[in-house]
Backbone:
């Protein structure tokens, strides 16, 4: 009996066999224990047969839900990030689950996929979003091909929708200086956050992931080695960069290094009673809990409302503002690529090429004394 109850624990288990291993000559067997209900165990059995032994005999017909489950299992085995898995689940539940609930996977054609894409277009989703959704759907059908539910991928021949490049928003030095003047004294940690953002081009998660261990104030460098992410359960955690290029060293100017050194001493006085070792604190932390993206957003919205002289930009646009500043001062694109953590110079040109002047010159430090 493949599904049975464990008399000791009261939980259910699935015990399946996959015949003889052609390489070792030994019997292939897999047992999944500690399943809460018999119904869950029965539903899990055919999935385990497919996953462990490639046995489709117990599957009456492939469903998109089964493909999603198998794909998620593969992603977990490949150590995909929790945040990636969560995003994939949100997309699946919102856009695919209901539409393909009764679909026959082996009968779907590229025209059916095109019809589905038209429903996404009618929802006024951005072309880039629709392209991402079709890419995820294509991944599910690749799983169908892998496990023998069908011989081809109906998404394969669909071309991506053309994506219109959004107008890039950024602030000049004068605009940023005006922004800094709007902060109250007690808001200084937030002001410093945005000053570092404008001065380094770091991403929001990278800035929130900064601890004092990442900063060498003597050499005036910041080592980007982690980012603060919010997990599906709502907890905050430090994760490494997504790519090798994300690991990088960023040089900061003299005035900023001096300001960070002064803030480090002030922060120590604020939080030393809560933490024995303040070197492991977030750089911009000023309360005995992690500083998160919501606090940063609320602070930004509060400050920007104090003026009608500035166009409102996204927090991510501080990264663009940094690049625009460097380009305006003639910085080499390869230096910009390294500061941003781009994997290739092509990415930098594709994103910021329209901002580059005809001539390029090497500069050492364009930021001292600007703000």
Residues:
């Amino acid at each position: 009996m493949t599904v049975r109850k464990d008399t000791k624990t009261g939980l259910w288990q699935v015990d399946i066999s996959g015949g003889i291993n052609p390489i070792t000559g030994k019997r292939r067997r897999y047992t999944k224990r500690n399943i809460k209900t018999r119904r869950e165990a029965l539903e899990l059995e055919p999935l385990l047969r497919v996953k462990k032994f490639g046995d489709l005999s117990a599957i009456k017909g492939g469903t998109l839900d089964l493909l999603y489950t198998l794909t998620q299992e593969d992603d977990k085995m490949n150590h995909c990030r929790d945040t990636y898995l969560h995003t994939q689940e949100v997309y699946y539940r919102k856009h695919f689950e209901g539409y393909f609930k009764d679909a026959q996977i082996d009968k779907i054609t590229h025209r059916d996929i095109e019809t589905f894409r038209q429903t996404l277009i009618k929802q006024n989703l951005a072309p880039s979003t629709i392209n991402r959704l079709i890419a995820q759907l294509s991944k599910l059908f690749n799983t169908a091909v892998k496990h023998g539910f069908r011989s081809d991928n109906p998404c394969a021949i669909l071309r991506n929708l053309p994506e219109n490049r959004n107008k890039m928003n950024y602030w000049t030095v004068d605009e940023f200086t005006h922004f800094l003047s709007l902060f109250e004294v007690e808001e200084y940690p937030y002001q410093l956050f945005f000053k570092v953002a404008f001065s380094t081009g770091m991403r929001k998660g990278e800035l929130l992931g900064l601890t004092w261990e990442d900063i060498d104030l003597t050499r005036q460098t910041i080592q980007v080695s982690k980012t603060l992410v919010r997990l599906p359960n709502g907890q905050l955690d430090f994760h490494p960069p997504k790519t090798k290029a994300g690991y990088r060293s960023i040089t900061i100017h003299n005035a900023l290094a001096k300001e960070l050194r002064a803030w480090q001493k002030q922060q120590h006085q604020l939080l030393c009673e809560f933490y024995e070792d303040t070197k492991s604190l977030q750089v911009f932390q000023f309360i005995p809990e992690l500083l998160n993206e919501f606090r940063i957003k609320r602070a930004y919205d509060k400050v920007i409302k104090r003026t009608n002289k500035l166009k409102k930009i996204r927090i991510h646009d501080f990264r663009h503002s940094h690049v625009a500043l460097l380009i305006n001062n003639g910085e080499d694109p390869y230096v910009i690529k390294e500061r941003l953590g781009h994997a290739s110079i092509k990415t930098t040109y594709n994103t910021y090429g329209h901002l580059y002047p005809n001539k390029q010159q090497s500069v050492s430090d364009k930021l001292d004394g600007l703000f």
